[in-house]
Amino acid sequence: MTGKILVMIIVLSTLIFGVGLYYTQVYAFYEEITAESSGGVTLVAQADGVTQELKHHDFKGIDSVSSPIRYRACYSLMQSLDVLQESYQTYPKAVPLTSPKWFDCFDATEIGEALEAGTAKAFLGVSNVMYGIDRVVAVMPDGRAFAWHQINDCGKLAFDGDPVPAHCPPKPEGQ
């Protein structure tokens, strides 16, 4: 009898722990954000490298203080994809990161397939929004845009503990 009770306690404890872990990873650390609280909807201009604010609507976003790459946003842009390509820096190695299933406007698979097919284009939203992290914006032909944070080449080296090349910005103290 004692063995059955012990097994039940272990199974129940494991189940409770698993549910708690799932909840913290998928829901607990995320918070909804506004365009203004996230630094605005921006792209980096080709001409001078200056970050410019863009007109947009229907912004939905989430972020987490637990990780710099948990930022996700969905919105619609007023400018056409052709105008954006002429004016703003593209992002050649864009790889959309998945988002929690409950944040259903952001579908990393759809975005990735559109980028691979060339129907969507990726742009640099903010360079080094945090050291080694860029904000990437993918824009669909219909004006829908999706943003996420992605580790850049300098960040990959710095986070691995390798020396960074001269073209990388200096690493902030304490990182």
Instruction: Give start-end ranges of low-pLDDT stretches.
Output: none
Helix and strand succession?
HEEEEEHHEEEH
Please list the strands of the largest sheet in the order they lie side by side.
1-4-5-8-7-6
User: Helical segment tally?
Assistant: 4
State the helical fraction.
25-40%
The assigned structural class equals: alpha+beta
Terminus-to-terminus distance: 54 Å
**CA gyration radius, whole angstroms:** 20 Å
Shape: globular
What's the main sheet like?
Answer: 6 strands, antiparallel
SS strand fraction: 25-35%
List keywords for this structure.
8 strands, 6-stranded antiparallel β-sheet, alpha+beta, 27% strand, 175 residues, two-stranded antiparallel sheet
